[in-house]
């Protein structure tokens, strides 16, 4: 639909309202009909990492992509280790 904005665009506009236009986060929250703590959290998130703030569904920050990749690698390495442990125990049993 033409008049609707994405959630990310809405949050960016809320932060812009609070920052650039000199409106307090409380006033911006009232104007946008969101809770003041939500508005404050959006401003903090945008200040912490403006480039990757509000990634949305299915879009991860580069750090999160790396963490996800490393978790998968750890799981794979643990599985390989467990297989090798079982194989070593099997062959040690046959050697006796």
Could you tell me the strand content as a percent range?
under 5%
Uncertain spans? none
Helix content, binned percent:
over 70%
Whole-number count of domains = 2
Biggest beta sheet summary: none
Radius of gyration: 24 Å
Number of DSSP-assigned strands: 0
Individual helix count: 4
Q: Structural class from helices and strands?
A: mainly alpha
Roughly what is the average pLDDT, rounded to an integer? 80
Q: Helix and strand succession?
A: HHHH
Distance between the termini: 74 Å
Which term fits the overall shape? rod-shaped
Architecture overview:
By secondary structure, the chain is mostly helical. The protein folds into two domains: 1-58; 60-96. Helices cover 71% and strands 0% of the residues. It is built from four helices and no strands. It has helices spanning 7-19, 25-32, 36-48, 62-95. Helix 1 (7-19) runs antiparallel to helix 2 (25-32), helix 1 (7-19) crosses helix 3 and helix 2 crosses helix 3. The longest helix has 34 residues, at 62-95. The chain is rod-shaped, with a radius of gyration of 24 Å. 10% of the residues are buried.
What's the SSE blueprint?
Blueprint: H1 7-19, H2 25-32, H3 36-48, H4 62-95
Helix pairs in contact: 1-2, 1-3, 2-3
């Amino acid at each position: 639909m033409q008049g609707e904005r994405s959630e990310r665009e809405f949050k960016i506009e809320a932060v812009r309202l609070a920052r650039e236009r000199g409106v307090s986060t409380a006033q911006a929250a009232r104007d946008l009909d969101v809770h003041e703590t939500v508005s404050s959290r959006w401003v903090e998130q945008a200040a912490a990492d403006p480039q990757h703030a509000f990634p949305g569904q299915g879009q991860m920050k580069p750090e999160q992509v790396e963490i996800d990749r490393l978790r998968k690698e750890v799981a794979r390495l643990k599985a390989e280790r467990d297989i090798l442990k079982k194989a070593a125990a099997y062959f040690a049993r046959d050697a006796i």
